Amino acid sequence: MTDATTRRPLDGIRVLELGQLIAGPFAGTLLAYFGAEVIKIEPPGSGDALRGWRVLDQGTSYWWFSQGRNKKSVTVNLRDREGQDIVRSLAATADVLVENFKPGQMEHWGLGPEQLKAINPALIYTRVSGYGQTGPDSGLPGFASVCEGFGGFRYLNGFPGEPPVRPNLSLGDTLAGLHAAFGVLLALVDRLRGGNGQGQVVDVAIYESIFNMMESVLPEFSGAGLVREPSGSTLTGIVPSNTYRCGDGKLIIIGANTDSMYQRLMNLIRRPDLANDPECAHNSGRVKAQARIDGAIGEWTCTLRSDEAIAALRGAGIAAGPIYSIADIAADPHYAARGMFETVTVNDHELTIPAMAPQLAATPGRTDWPGPRLGEHTDAVLGSTLGFDDSRMTELRSRGII
User: Fold this and answer.
1) DSSP per residue, 184-233
2) How many CB atoms sit inside 10 A of residue 240's CB?
3) Which end of the chain lies in a sparser environment, N or C, as judged by fewer CB atoms within 10 Å?
4) What is the pTM of this model?
């Protein structure tokens, strides 16, 4: 981890995070990592549901220690009028608000963007939902799994004739969180450069975050009437770029789809017939000969161990690599050399969590503390920010408001 005194690009920016699980909170995690003060509002008693997801360490999710890093946990009952008043007062001091409730819920609580703009015109109000704040589907529940299908990703992700494959990750949520953090930064730049100091609404839809990564799928359909279909481990129209099994049973990835790299690959595997075939000199011809090319590569890889094949390919300047599990990643020296692992202390033992990209040379991000205990910062934040004294907080706590 970088030195605790190193300046970070979002130092001095206050973010109020409302919501739970992944999409909105991941945006908060990114902002906190790069210096923002993120005040996370959680319901008293239960907290963010992510605290109890997947594998637990003394009742708390390992995931939480990463997702909740650098955040201040403040418990407030948003269903209570006084709780809403507390959040309203905190929003008056914030630069950014991030929420991922169902569209309309924040307005129902009196905490919508127009309602908060009246007390803080500079607030950047960032909203993450399945289908966005407008349009005929805006009111539908929008989990990542469903939005990955609606956004077009699942249709392409699999093998022809088989059901689409789901990656064992909430990809749509993470992409939405990235888009939300990007939107916050764009709005901050505009607020600084625009001269009027006004905030704005950032509207992030999970399905649109998926749709943003669909590359040329739409223009190919519009211009050529082409519907791109699933293609298994290959990339439609790009050859060779595939997964190949080696003699030790392991799979490797080879992407040799530039003309010069293709030539080097064919010479490496001792296939001068394919290296010198004028019809395979360029990608358009290689696409037609894909089965023949992939077959030749596979015949070569199956004669070598995966590490031998990768070494030979990399030695020839060909893009190739293994398919890593997290155990492989944890043992890889390149990850370590790039500082992609950070160590925090949780429940009296050390835990490794991922560092966060991108890497900034002058103002890098860092993890100051892992995900906090539920309500750990309630008294400190409400006392220092809103001036609540001990008796006020004791009274609010007795009524379940904080």
Assistant:
1) HHHHHHHHHHHSS----EEEEEHHHHHHTT-TTHHHHHHHH-------TT
2) 26
3) N
4) 0.95
Q: Tell whether 91 and 31 lie within a shared domain.
A: yes
Angle at 195 between CA 194 and CA 197, to 5 degrees: 90
Interstrand relation of 37-42 and 14-18 (parallel, antiparallel or unpaired):
parallel
* Residue of 176, 89, 79 lying closest to 126 (CA atoms): 176
Is residue 342 domain-shared with residue 314, that is, in the same domain? Answer: no
- CA 28/CA 38 separation, integer angstroms: 7
Q: State mean pLDDT over 260-283.
A: 97
The pLDDT assigned to 98 comes to: 98
- Residues 83, 128: one domain? yes
Report cis status (omega within 30 of 0) of the bond before 240: yes
Q: What CATH number is given to the structural domain containing 309? A: 3.30.1540.10
Q: How many C-beta atoms surround the C-beta of residue 151 within 10 A?
A: 24
The pLDDT-based confidence of 194 (bands split at 50, 70, 90) is confident
Q: What is the set of active-site residues?
A: 173
Residue 220 lies in a domain: no
Residue 398 corresponds to which tokens in the numbers above? Answer: 């007795």
CB 266 within 8 A of CB 239: no
Residue 230: inside a domain, yes or no? no
Residue 221 lies in a domain: no
Q: How far apart are CA 237 and CA 28, in angstroms?
A: 38
What are the residues whose beta carbons fall under 8 Å from the beta carbon of 350, sequence distance 6 or more?
343, 344
What domain count does the chain have? 2
Q: What is the mean pLDDT of residues 167-171?
A: 94
What does the DSSP 8-state code read for residue 394? H
Q: Residue 2's pLDDT band (boundaries 50, 70, 90)?
A: low
**Cis previous bond, 358, omega within 30:** yes
343 within some domain: yes
* Span 128-144, average pLDDT: 96
Enclosing domain of residue 296: 241-245+251-322
Q: CA 214 from chain center: how many Å?
A: 16
Please state, rounded to an integer, the average pLDDT across all residues of the chain: 96
